[in-house]
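From the methods appendix. Each design record in this collection lists the tokenized structure first, followed by the designed amino acid sequence. Records were kept in a plain field format so they could be parsed without special tools. The example shown here is representative of the layout used throughout.

RECORD:
FOLD TOKENS (559 positions):
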């Protein structure tokens, strides 16, 4: 029998339990914001708040990062998530450790039927995607939180019970030093797909479990493979089922094999079985060592509302989608970015509590879209009826000969930042703006996310404003205290230059016709309003609407 070697397990950090003040006697603490769950979503939110100068308490029942015993778990981080990390100050570290990629190839049998290059549509300073083991991302976020110093990190602490009230939530907590309770004015549930908080509140998730089965093999090869994302729809070396192959940090490859629906999870994850799959794919003489092997299935679920009184749900606690296209962890991080600036403005008295209602409206719409996209991918990869099998065979046959059909080969449309529909706070709707680099007035490069790093403010990108118009608008901003920073793009008082109109085109402005137009970006880098021939009155009204301070906003804003 062949002997298989496993690489030494990763040495993950261990965070000490520190007894909180509540265990020293006295009344339970009352905290403005408490986050439960130190996964990617919870850590991103805590870091987002700290970057804005807002304190929070972050609770996790473990004392390390990642999932014990697992290697990769989540690995693909999309450009929007990397731009969030850039604003939080850790994107360079994540990109340096991970593997950046933009090119993907899809095969049917041994023939390439479709390829894409995500860089074709990118103007961002961040790459379209990196592959990085989830525990590294969490590790970097914890390090950043410790450096910022505004987050009370409470490890080895488990929530045993909650009781929701109109203006706060009571939490009962269990620790190695005993039980205690505290109160949260706002509670964030980031505890994942099996959320005990959601269960205690009795909220329906409308879950559906897939019969699709997969097995992850994290492996290091003696001789490296091409650094590209390769996908097989019907791999001949996997009995005609799907396979994913891509490189992560530390020279570790993650290969996902689709398994029979009735596969026994324990049997398919045995080293002998996993090794035979690798040899069938790469040849009998391939040299490798295992890092980790893990079977998985998946399910979908979606809450009706991501807010329940003083409780907010982010990440997998609110929604779960199939893994195709990396729309799980990225969506949770983008939940955090959406909610963070709104919590900060409310906490700082710069916006009403009703602004927080827009979190659920915007992010649930995004998750409905993600569910639709991933469900289509799942049915293409695991057809459920003769008609679906026929459709897939036809698409693959056409893709071999006709370019138009190649885009129909559905192995998972990659995660992108979702647009937001029109609403009371967004009369024009909103779309994400990429982290474009532009020269400042001295010719030095800067990037949009860097302009959003400090504090919590909207960004008014004003193309060639007149001196008088800008002075009047800035005076009105000082009078009203509305959270905004004006940046002149070109013109007599330029802060930044856009010589090739790359930014103007990216913002949807007509070539050569942008003078006087102000594009209003939210603190999460979403374009919220375009104001032609902007005036101080138009800007103030747009900010009042955006921050929830206008009573109604039924028509698109105009100057």
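DESIGN:
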């Amino acid at each position: 029998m062949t002997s298989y070697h496993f690489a030494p397990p990763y040495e993950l950090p261990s965070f000490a339990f520190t007894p909180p003040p509540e265990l020293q006697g006295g009344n339970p603490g009352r905290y403005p914001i408490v986050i439960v769950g130190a996964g990617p979503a919870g850590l991103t939110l805590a870091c987002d708040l700290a970057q804005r100068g807002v304190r929070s308490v972050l609770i996790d029942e473990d004392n390390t990062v990642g999932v014990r015993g697992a290697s990769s778990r989540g690995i693909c981080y999309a450009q929007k998530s990397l731009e969030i990390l850039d604003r939080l100050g850790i994107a360079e570290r994540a990109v340096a450790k991970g593997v950046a990629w933009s090119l993907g190839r899809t095969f049917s049998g041994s023939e390439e039927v479709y390829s894409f290059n995500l860089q074709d549509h990118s103007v961002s300073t961040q790459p379209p995607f990196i592959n990085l083991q989830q525990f590294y991302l969490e590790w970097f976020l914890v390090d950043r939180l410790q450096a910022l110093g505004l987050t009370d990190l409470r490890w080895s602490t488990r929530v045993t019970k909650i009781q929701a009230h109109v203006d706060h939530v009571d939490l009962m907590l269990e620790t190695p030093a005993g039980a205690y309770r505290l109160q949260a004015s706002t509670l964030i549930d980031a505890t994942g797909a099996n959320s005990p908080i959601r269960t205690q509140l009795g909220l329906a998730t409308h879950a559906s479990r897939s019969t699709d089965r997969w097995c992850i093999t994290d492996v290091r090869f003696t001789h490296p493979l091409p650094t590209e994302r390769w996908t097989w729809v019907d791999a001949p070396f996997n009995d005609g089922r799907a396979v994913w192959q891509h490189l992560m940090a530390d020279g570790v490859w993650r290969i996902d094999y689709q398994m029979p629906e009735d596969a026994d999870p324990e049997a398919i994850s045995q080293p002998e079985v996993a090794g035979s799959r690798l040899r069938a794919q790469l040849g009998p003489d391939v040299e490798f060592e295992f890092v980790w092997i893990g079977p998985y299935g998946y399910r979908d679920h979606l809450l009706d509302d991501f807010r329940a009184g003083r409780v907010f749900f982010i990440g997998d606690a609110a929604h779960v989608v199939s893994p195709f296209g990396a729309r799980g962890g990225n969506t949770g991080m983008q939940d955090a970015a959406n909610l963070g600036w709104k919590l900060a403005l409310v906490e700082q008295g710069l916006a009403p509590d009703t602004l927080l209602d827009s979190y659920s409206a915007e992010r649930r719409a995004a998750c409905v879209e993600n569910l639709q996209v991933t469900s289509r991918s799942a049915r293409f990869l695991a057809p459920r009826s003769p008609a679906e099998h026929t459709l897939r065979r036809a698409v693959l046959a056409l893709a071999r000969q006709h370019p138009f059909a190649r885009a129909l080969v559905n192995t998972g449309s990659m995660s992108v930042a979702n647009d937001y529909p029109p609403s009371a706070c967004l009369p024009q709707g909103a779309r994400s703006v990429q982290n474009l680099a532009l020269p400042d007035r001295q010719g030095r490069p800067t990037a949009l996310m860097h302009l959003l790093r400090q504090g919590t403010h909207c960004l008014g990108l004003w193309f060639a404003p007149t001196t008088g118009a800008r002075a009047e608008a800035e005076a009105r901003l000082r009078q009203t205290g509305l959270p905004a920073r004006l940046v002149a793009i070109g013109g007599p008082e330029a802060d930044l230059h856009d010589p090739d109109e790359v930014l103007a085109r990216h913002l949807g402005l007509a070539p050569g016709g942008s003078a006087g137009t102000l594009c209003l970006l939210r603190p999460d880098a979403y374009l919220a309003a375009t104001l032609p021939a902007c005036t101080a009155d138009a800007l103030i009204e747009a900010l009042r609407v955006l921050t929830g301070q206008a009573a109604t906003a039924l028509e698109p804003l105009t100057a």
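APPENDIX NOTE: The longest helix spans residues 357-381.
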